[in-house]
Amino acid sequence: MEVIVDNLIEKALESAVSYKEYRADLDSLVESVKSGNPDQNDEYLEYRLLNQQRMKRLDKSFKLSESVLAKLKEVESPVIWLVLIENWCGDGAQSLPVLNRMAEASPNISLKIVLRDQHLPLMDQFLTDGGRSIPKLIMLDEITGNIQDTWGPRPTKATAMFNAQKLKFGKITPEFRTELQRWYTKDKGLNVVSDILKILALE
Question: Which Pfam families match (predicted)?
Fold first, then answer.
């Protein structure tokens, strides 16, 4: 089983893109659909438009504190952060820019991104409560390829909200998803930062 996972990760890394490339791909897709290209599936256009706006906002406004920047410089061994995601995913749009900013702050962290639906066998090795929930971050030792840890699909506080909603009502409503996005806006990426620092034993 471990060999299978290793092979799936290796295959994913071969097709992975940078954050800049991921953002450019999203912008290109949105513009293509908006211009009326009949070859593009616009089923998720509304979500992609929202996510494009969210990511633009975070790319522009999100900053790491000096103390967090100092902690990230303590990452001594080279690691790869492999993220499984889709550009229609609201949770991903709120978390990925934060992960990117953290990776940029350390010379030893390399962020790589792949689309979940192109790597379902890999996704199925990292399910959340039996589901293919994204984003899913897989932390890898760049030298050995060993999996160090995982994170996702949501920061801990958002996960608590999500689980409480599901326990109480048995389902996730559109109204709750709107409430969750409001929470992300108010939190400003801080919970993601805290979660990752704890995984890295830097907090």
Answer: Thioredoxin_9
pTM beyond 0.90, yes or no: yes
At a CB cut-off of 8 Å and minimum separation 6, what does 159 contact?
Answer: none
The CATH T-level fold of domain 2-153 is Glutaredoxin (3.40.30)
Tell me how many degrees the CA angle 154-158-162 measures, rounded to the nearest 5: 95
Strand pairing class (79-85; 109-115): parallel
Q: How far is CA 203 from CA 7, 17, 38, 193, in A?
A: 32, 29, 49, 10
- pLDDT value at residue 4: 81
Provide CB contacts within 8 A for 173, sequence distance 6+.
165
Provide the residue type at 98 as one letter: V
Return the SS3 of 147. Answer: strand
Pull the structure tokens for residue 173. 């409503």
Return the ∠ at Cα 31 (arms to 28 and 33), rounded to 5°: 110
